Amino acid sequence: MRMIFLGPPGAGKGTQAVKLAAKYGIAHISTGDMLREHVRNETELGKEAKIYMDSGRLVPDELIIEMVRRRLKKEDSKKGFILDGFPRTVKQAEALDELLKSEGIVLDAVVFFDADEETLVRRLSGRRVCPNCNAIYNVYNEDYPSEDCCKNCGVKLVQRDDDKPDVVRQRLKVYEKETAPLLAYYKDKGNLIAVDASLESDEVLRAIEGLCGGKDDSN
Question: Binning pLDDT at 50, 70 and 90, where does residue 99 land?
């Protein structure tokens, strides 16, 4: 199972990637997580990336691709992987294609998490975060704590500025503008599949497994 997950903020890419990675023992590769890990461990790539991050600039594609290349060589990636939210542009997709080709890796699918704007705004604007332990909750979920306090540490939950409805709508506009060419790119290649991300989480998981054939190894 070797896949790319694409979709707007709030579509549930990360949630499904975590579930599938755990179920099949494959790698969940998030470029954001990789960047933070390299910076935290003060690797050469991390030090270089930190220079850009500290100055508010985007980390160059070349650095991200090199991080992905190294991550794909780890043992869990050899059985399979899910690239979560990367690539974001056609240029990144082309660079990733070259990397995968050089490593002899063939993608099984590029999964697009499709959901309407109102569903995404509702999900993101309902998100609350613990400022102490970073636990995430949603006011629309049945298990949301009644006192608006984190179940782990009791700290009052907060709403991030970028999860407020007006900001969410702007984020979605930017995403649509940047990502439309990327979806066309993979559609032209014939490996783009779409799932209805507005469904319940377990239904989305079953849909992905059904579309991808439930592949669980590198054969």
Answer: very high
CA distances in angstroms from 179 to 157, 159, 185, listed in the order given: 32, 26, 10
Active site residue 160: yes
Catalytic residue flag (residue 122): no
Residue 71 appears among annotated catalytic residues? no
pLDDT of residue 213: 62
Q: Considering the candidates 40, 101, 160, 189, report the single residue annotated as catalytic.
A: 160
Domain 2-115+176-212: which CATH class? alpha beta
| Measured distance CA(2)–CA(84) in Å, rounded | 11
Q: Annotated catalytic, 13?
A: yes
Q: Residue 26 pLDDT > 50, yes or no?
A: yes
Catalytic pick among 13, 19, 122, 128? 13
Q: Is 25 a residue whose pLDDT tops 80?
A: yes
Domain ranges of the chain: 2-115+176-212
Asked if residues 9 and 124 have their Cβ atoms less than 8 Å apart, the reply is yes
What global pTM score does this model have? 0.83
User: Could you say which of 2, 71, 127, 128 is catalytic?
Assistant: 127
Annotation marks residue 171 as catalytic = yes
Q: Which of 88, 151, 169, 215 is catalytic?
A: 88
Residues near 10 by beta carbon (within 8 Å), at least 6 away in sequence: 115, 119, 120, 121, 123, 124, 168
